[in-house]
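R.M. (postdoc): so does anyone remember the format we settled on? I'll just put the structure tokens first.
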């Protein structure tokens, strides 16, 4: 501890999960009460790969792509390899509306990112015939 009261402590954790931390100080006068609880979430694993569930086959130039992903992640959707934006998978499902899509064959994929910034592998492609 320094004169200013600042301190630090290296903590080793056993793995991913939530840890509840408190602190106390000790000096010649005794030990302080515990501080308030601080929750530290350790997350080093990538989320599961998202799955595109609908539609299938042929679609109009406007349609809604739906899928599943690990709850609480953000899903980035790609059309022919180019990002078309992100959507939240709060409860484990997501939807992304498309309009004015060029006619032809399009491949859609997705990647999930969790709150710790871990990114999943890219999903299997969903091939749609737009027209």
């Amino acid at each position: 501890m320094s004169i200013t009261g600042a301190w630090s402590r290296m903590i080793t954790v056993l793995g991913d999960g939530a840890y509840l931390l408190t602190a106390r100080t000790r000096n010649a006068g005794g030990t302080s009460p515990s501080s308030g609880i601080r929750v530290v979430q350790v997350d080093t694993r990538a989320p599961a790969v998202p799955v595109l569930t609908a539609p299938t086959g042929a679609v109009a130039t406007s349609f809604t792509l739906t899928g599943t992903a690990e709850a609480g992640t953000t899903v980035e959707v790609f059309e022919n390899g180019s990002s078309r934006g992100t959507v939240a998978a709060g409860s484990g499902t997501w939807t992304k509306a498309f309009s004015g899509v060029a006619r032809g064959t399009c491949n859609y994929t997705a990647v999930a990112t969790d709150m710790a910034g871990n990114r999943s592998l890219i999903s299997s492609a969903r091939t749609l015939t737009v027209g």
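R.M.: ...and that's the designed sequence above, right after the tokens. Also worth knowing: The chain has no helices and twelve strands. The first strand starts at residue 17 and ends at 21.
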